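During the reporting period the student researcher (J.K.) took over the structure-prediction task from the postdoctoral fellow and processed the backlog of single-chain submissions. One of the processed entries is reproduced below for the supervisory committee.
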Amino acid sequence: MPLDILTGPLGIGLAAVLGLLVGSFLNVVIHRLPIMLERRWAAECAEMHPATTPSTLPGSGLGAPAAAAQAPALNLVTPRSRCPACGAGIAWYHNIPLLSYALLRGKCSACSAPIGLRYPLVELLTGLGFAYVMHLHGPGWPVLAWMGFVAAVLALAFIDWDTTLLPDDITLPLLWAGLLAAALGWSGLALEVSLWGAVVGYVSLWSIYWAFKLLTGKEGMGYGDFKLFAALGAWLGWQALIPILLLASLLGAVVGLAMKYSSGLREGGYVPFGPFLAFGALLALVLGPDTLLGWVGL
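J.K. obtained the following structure tokens:
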């Protein structure tokens, strides 16, 4: 199919459909990757420090080495998706992005347990993101690169919100992909701008982290935030980092206060910063850094 056919509404529509399908897979990544990482860490701890490793893994009733060995195989492909409430397998026709959720009225077909709104939301956001970058760039390698950026940022945002983790398995490839995309001319940034974006992104949050820790004795963010901000700098350039950081800080403060007064804060009072950085980055992609600066009064 000539690429010219994919320009205009047809290409945007196909990109949206692809985004819906990728969004369905992202739901699997968001749910399973943290579990896979916890299993990996538990197995590594058991190997290195068998005498000091907790005798059981949470909810397993098994010693750490035994649990790691006997736990059902879990990766991003197997086992097939199941209802977390009743364990029934999800048929392919109940796994069609957006449509199945609407037809099932947000409930499991087997036990009628509610299906979280998160699932269609991730699919919808990914579909919209893919459609937008196709509108922006048209068919070609750059649009594939930016689709990867949108997918990775959304996955990181939701994983961090759920677990306060920003996995290196996503942040580091996202960082290197941003530099590679700049080198190949796919991101629209000069390699020098992308490189300085990564440096400024990492060093700025690293400096804020240590300044806050020296002043208060507490940790205000995790190391994953440094890596995510560096990746955003590699993709969007150092000029975009100031509005992203200001907007993320403002939104984080508002949401944190709202959760505090509604007793919605998790144990320890943590509000992950990564989702707000991700939201700011996607807004910068759509609106441009200058618009975001205007929003925050600069």
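The committee noted the following: Confidence is low (pLDDT under 50) at residues 55-69.
J.K. will present the remaining backlog at the next meeting.
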